[in-house]
From TrEMBL, chain A:
Source organism (scientific name): Paenibacillus kribbensis
Gene Ontology molecular function, alphabetical: monoatomic cation transmembrane transporter activity
Single biological process term from Gene Ontology: potassium ion transport
Domain RCK C-terminal: 74-161
Stated name of the protein: Potassium:proton antiporter
Pfam families assigned: KhtT_N, TrkA_C
TrEMBL record, chain B:
GO cellular component terms given for this protein: membrane
GO molecular function: antiporter activity
Places the protein is found: Membrane
Name listed for the protein in its UniProt record: Cation/H(+) antiporter
Record organism: Paenibacillus kribbensis
Primary localisation category: membrane
Protein family according to the UniProt entry: Belongs to the monovalent cation:proton antiporter 2 (CPA2) transporter (TC 2.A.37) family.
InterPro entries listed in its UniProt record: Cation/H_exchanger_TM, Na+/solute_symporter_sf
Record-linked PANTHER family: K(+)_H(+) ANTIPORTER SUBUNIT KHTU, SODIUM/HYDROGEN EXCHANGER FAMILY/TRKA DOMAIN PROTEIN
């Protein structure tokens, strides 16, 4: 991959990325924080065929997604990603939630909501990937859940009230 | 002077209305500011309480326009960096030289062939040479062209023009503003101007650590006052030694750009630049009586527009070739920087201050109006224009030629 950086005085910084696939992507970081992504046609590298504008925050979220999901949702209550009908959502467990202290099996999450917990991150840094039914949901943990939109809704109910 | 605030309020309201119209039409705002200024003025009417003649407030509006020039040039200095220019490479220096060389020569030819004296010719060449950074940069962003291959070259040429502008104003202000008429006297004042510039830059460079310390001010209010104070003092002092005050402002910007506070100053200055800049275009329009625009000024301006279009496309193609860009991309270069604006008007004002022929002002007005409107249009339509030109000239792609020779 070939990346070229150049300064655009009065506008911002430009990165030109030639990917192995032959695609050319140009990213402009404007001085006002806006990001513009351009995609160039690899049959005619002078013609941009699509472009997207993101604001600063959106750009950071997209970057974390492209960067391989290492995104840690520290400041955010919940982050959402969608693949067709499937949504991956982050939930921060507040101390007053009825589900605090109960295990996944006790709450019977899969049965009641249809959604699946794919990861739990404890505040102290303990991580559970694909947690089993014995894992307990503690306060301040972040729960990553995959499911369709109404499944997510039911899961949120369980998290709040302890049951569907 | 009883109703000064009211008159200035009326002026600002008119400018705001012009701005609103231009943004509704999605158009460059500069020609609208000038046009609204031209529409009012001493020849205009007085409606009940609303005095559209701006007789009492004219000197005041004029002064605010002058402040606008100071802020424009100050900002230019802040943004500009020699390091950046050097980094941007040989092809850009070459492209910039080609661009200025062609357009400046054409400007000189126009002036001399029209029978103007030397000073007027030099001012006219200045007006026709320097593109509007404001319009070009805005058009690039608005048309989503920043990602294109020619963008670096375009911005590089603009930066190069800024350097040319600084040196040229300093020489020209020595020539036009000084009282001496002998060659020696003119040279002397040009030397004083250049010497002053060098002195400020050198002292400024040495003083950067000191300036860093002085500007470490927590209060925004005091910080602003210190920056404004130094800007106005240096600019005003420059004027006393026949160096255009705009140059003084540019120098202050160049020096402060080196300090660690450059970003904060930039942040502080932008609203002032925009506000007083708008008044600058308005006051320029105000100084022109549209009823006097007949005859020579129009023909001269039209000739200059044609020359500029020709010079731009030619220079763009050549500059693009030096950077081995394709003809299609090269055509974009010339067509994007065709717009003329703030710097041409600064040049025209210099001519006015120096008491040159009256035709320079209306000429600059028509010329800037046409190109400020035509520039963004040409940029937008660069593709069909290139296709049309290509049918006539059949440009060769330097990259293809290289590949051909490789295969042989």
């Amino acid at each position: 991959m070939d990346i070229r950086e150049s300064i655009l005085p009065g506008i911002g910084i430009k990165y030109r990325i030639d990917a192995e696939s032959g695609d050319r992507i140009v990213i402009i970081i404007h001085d006002d924080g806006r990001r513009e992504l351009y995609h160039f046609d690899y049959e005619d590298l002078e013609q941009s065929i699509s472009m997207t504008t993101l604001n600063d925050q959106e750009a950071r979220q997209v970057a974390s997604i492209i960067g391989g999901m290492t995104y840690k949702p520290k400041q955010l209550e919940s982050v959402e990603m969608t693949f067709d009908d499937f949504i991956i959502e982050w939930y921060k467990v507040e101390p007053h939630y009825a589900s605090v202290g109960k295990s996944i099996g006790n709450l019977d999450i899969r049965q009641n909501s249809g959604a699946t917990i794919i990861a739990i991150m404890e505040k102290k840094g303990k991580k559970f990937v694909n947690p089993g039914p014995e894992v307990v949901i503690n306060e301040d943990a972040t729960v990553v859940v995959v499911g369709e939109r109404d499944q997510q809704k039911r899961f949120k109910q369980i998290l709040l009230n302890g049951s569907g | 002077m009883d109703h000064l605030v009211f008159e200035v309020g009326l002026a600002i309201a008119l400018i705001a209305a012009a701005g609103l119209i231009s943004s509704r039409l999605r158009f460059s705002v500069i020609p609208f500011y000038i046009l609204i200024g031209m529409a009012v003025g001493p020849h205009a009417m007085e409606l009940w309480h609303f005095d559209f003649r701006f007789i009492e407030s004219a000197p005041f509006i004029d002064f605010m326009g002058r402040i606008g020039v100071l802020f424009l040039l100050f900002y230019l200095g802040l943004e500009f960096s020699v390091g950046r220019l050097i980094k941007s490479g040989r092809s850009i220096a070459l492209g910039g030289t080609i661009y200025i060389g062609i357009n400046f020569t054409l400007g000189l030819a126009l002036g001399f062939l029209s029978g103007f004296p030397v000073a007027e010719t030099l001012v006219i060449a200045g007006i026709t040479t320097i593109s509007s950074s404001a319009i070009a940069a805005k058009v690039l962003v608005d048309l989503k062209r920043t990602a294109n291959a020619e963008t670096e070259m375009i911005l590089g040429i603009i930066m190069f023009e800024d350097v040319f502008l600084a040196v040229y104003i300093s020489i020209l202000s020595g020539l036009v503003l000084s009282d001496s008429s002998s060659l020696g006297g003119v040279l002397l004042s040009a030397l004083i101007a250049l010497g002053f510039m060098l002195a400020v830059i050198i002292i400024g460079r040495k003083a950067v650590p000191l300036l860093n310390r002085i500007l470490r001010i927590r209060s925004n209010e005091v910080f602003g006052l210190v920056v404004f104070g130094s800007l106005f003092l240096v600019a005003g002092f420059s004027e006393t030694i026949h160096v255009a005050e705009a140059i003084g402002a540019l120098l202050v910007g160049l020096v402060l750009a080196e300090t660690e506070h450059a970003k904060r100053i930039e942040h502080l200055i932008v609203p002032f630049r925009d506000f007083f800049g708008a008044l600058f275009f308005f006051s320029f329009g105000l100084s022109i009586d549209p009823l006097s625009l007949g005859g020579n000024a129009i023909w001269l301006a039209l000739a200059a527009v044609i020359l500029t279009l020709f010079g731009n496309i030619w220079a763009g193609m050549l500059a693009g070739r030096t950077a081995s860009l394709s003809p299609k991309v090269s055509a974009n270069i010339g067509l994007t920087i065709v717009a003329r604006g703030e710097f041409s008007i600064i040049m025209a004002n210099l001519g006015k201050e120096g008491g040159l022929l009256d035709i320079v002002q209306p000429f600059a007005a028509i010329y800037v109006l046409i190109l400020a409107i035509l520039g963004p249009l040409l940029t937008k339509q660069s593709k069909p224009i290139f296709n049309m030109l290509n049918k006539i000239f059949k440009f060769k792609d330097p990259r293809l030629r290289k590949e051909e020779s490789k295969t042989i």
